[in-house]
Amino acid sequence: MLSAIGNLSVESRRHLLERVPAEKANLYTRDLVAVLVGDEEELLAVVFARAELRHYQDTALRGRPTASWLKRAAMALDHGWTAEQVVAACTSGLVGWTGSEAEYWGAWVEDFRKLGRSGGRHRKQLSEAGVRRYSSTGSSRILFRFSRVKVLLDRYPADDQWKYPTM
């Protein structure tokens, strides 16, 4: 259903955005607002224009730093967001990934490094904040998981006393 909503015209999505209730954001309405805004700067402007929708503003900044993301990120910076808040919003609502966690976060870091290689008003600021955040995010998560595995191995050593249940 959300993909169908994303295929509506910009005007139809604007009409719906103007009617999003001003209640505290929940998982479903956050996803709905993200799809309604999509890559459209003018629709993000609707969300920023309604102060009561501040809980939804980060949803439009989800995803990797692309050209369309950069335009939305610049709008957030112009509305008083810090570069750190903008890059943190990239992974708001992120559920998971497949493959190596180190490679996953490494790709995020590389995307932000590439962002800073070319000029632009906000590029360097966002690039530095992104590299800082996702370098530490990936490393911290991997170290945290490693420490949890180490605790389990220390608690339950793999010796002759450790028996797996049989069927």
Report how far the terminal alpha carbons are from each other. Answer: 44 Å
The shape, in one word, is: globular
- Measured by DSSP, the beta-strand proportion falls in under 5%
Count of extended strands = 0
Radius of gyration based on Cα positions:
20 Å
- Averaged pLDDT, please? 81
- Helix content class: 55-70%
Structural class: mainly alpha
Write the layout of secondary structure elements.
Layout: H1 2-6, H2 10-17, H3 27-37, H4 41-49, H5 67-78, H6 83-89, H7 101-115, H8 123-155
Helix pairs in contact: 4-5, 6-8, 7-8
Account of the 3D structure:
It is a single chain. By secondary structure, this protein is mostly helical. It has two domains: 1-61, no CATH class; 62-157, no CATH class. The chain is built from eight helices and no strands. Helix 7 (101-115) runs antiparallel to helix 8 (123-155). The longest helix is centred in the C-terminal third of the chain and has 33 residues, at 123-155.
Provide a short characterization of the protein structure.
This protein is mainly alpha-helical and 167 residues long. The chain contains eight helices and no strands. It has two domains: 61 residues, no CATH class; 96 residues, no CATH class.
Features:
8 helices; mainly alpha; 167 residues; 2 domains
